[in-house]
Hints:
Elements: E1 3-6, H1 12-23, E2 27-32, H2 35-46, E3 52-56, H3 62-75, E4 80-83, H4 101-128, E5 133-137, H5 150-169, E6 174-179, H6 186-191, H7 206-215, E7 220-223, H8 224-228
Parallel strand pairs: 1-2, 1-4, 2-3, 4-5, 5-6, 6-7
Helix pairs in contact: 1-2, 3-4, 4-5
Amino acid sequence: xxxxxxxxxxxxxxxxxxxxxxxxxxxxxxxxxxxxxxxxxxxxxxxxxxxxxxxxxxxxxxxxxxxxxxxxxxxxxxxxxxxxxxxxxxxxxxxxxxxxxxxxxxxxxxxxxxxxxxxxxxxxxxxxxxxxxxxxxxxxxxxxxxxxxxxxxxxxxxxxxxxxxxxxxxxxxxxxxxxxxxxxxxxxxxxxxxxxxxxxxxxxxxxxxxxxxxxxxxxxxxxxxxxxxxx
Length: 231
């Protein structure tokens, strides 16, 4: 069975994607910081009959990243790496003039540096896969100028560039940066707690990720809503 590593997998989009891949027979290595919630997710995902390794920890920890790849190797390799773990930099979000620099550093460390570090750790196994792929979860805040989203958006713009260059440097792999669009997640609620407008559930954008895996288009940046609509 193919093997995927998914970071930030205990809730929201990460969990929804884990459930969908498990239903397709994928074995999974799941990461999140909250050990209790991660165990609940892993137990639920394992009901599909696939093997699930759940490793709580912080993706900024090099030892934790190595542990994720080791767990995947024990399951058979790495066919898919999903960098979904994210940090906002401030909760709730604030204007750049008020953004704590420590918060910006945290967002860059989680969203960019750790994502690249995990790719570097997994790259030998990804290259061995017959269909190796990397997915980085992007955001429209990385491409548009939204008030208070500057720090988080800057980190996602940097992640997009890393994904674009990785796609050029590793032509045998597929490297997709995916903007999932608006979703009802705890991350968004923490970013803008006063915004109670209805938003789509993370499960609604999972078909976009599955389409990428099924059709394997060229490496690049994709919007989940367009993929779901068949464009």
